[in-house]
C-alpha cells in the first residue's frame, strides 16, 4: 500500500467503525489515487489481487452506507462512485455538480459550484437533486 494514503485510509475506516481489511484498504487506496469517479469494474483487479464481484459490491455498499463514498448517476446503466467530502453515515451531503467528459469518459465532482435552485410545482418535495454536465474536460479540449 502507498504509505502516503495508508494512515488516511486506516483513520477513515476506524472513524467509520469499520475494520481495516485488505479489500477495504485496496479499494479506498484506488479512490485516493484516482482523480475522478470509478466504476465497479475498476475494483475487480487491484495490485495483483483479484476480488470477486460480490465482495466489491458489498464493500462499495458498506462505504455508501457509512458516507465514505457517493453514487454518481449516468446516462447509461453504469454507476460511478466518488469519495465523499462532508458526508456521514446518517446523511449524504453531496450537493455538487458532476462533469462527464465525452472524449475520455472521465467523471469528476465539481466542488464549489452551486446547484441552481429548482422550483417544483406545489405539492412536490425534492429529497435529492443530481446534476450531470457533459462536454470536454480541459485535458481533452
UniProtKB/TrEMBL annotation:
Signal peptide: none annotated. InterPro entries: FUR, WH-like_DNA-bd_sf, WH_DNA-bd_sf. Its cofactor is Mn(2+); Fe(2+); Zn(2+). Coiled coil: none annotated. One of its GO terms (molecular function) is DNA-binding transcription factor activity. GO terms for biological process: negative regulation of DNA-templated transcription; regulation of secondary metabolite biosynthetic process. Zn(2+) binds at residues 101, 104, 137, 140. Fe cation binds at residue 95. Keywords: Iron, Metal-binding, Zinc. Binds 1 Mn(2+) or Fe(2+) ion per subunit. Binds 1 zinc ion per subunit. PANTHER family: HYDROGEN PEROXIDE SENSITIVE REPRESSOR, ZINC UPTAKE REGULATION PROTEIN. This is Fur family transcriptional regulator, ferric uptake regulator.
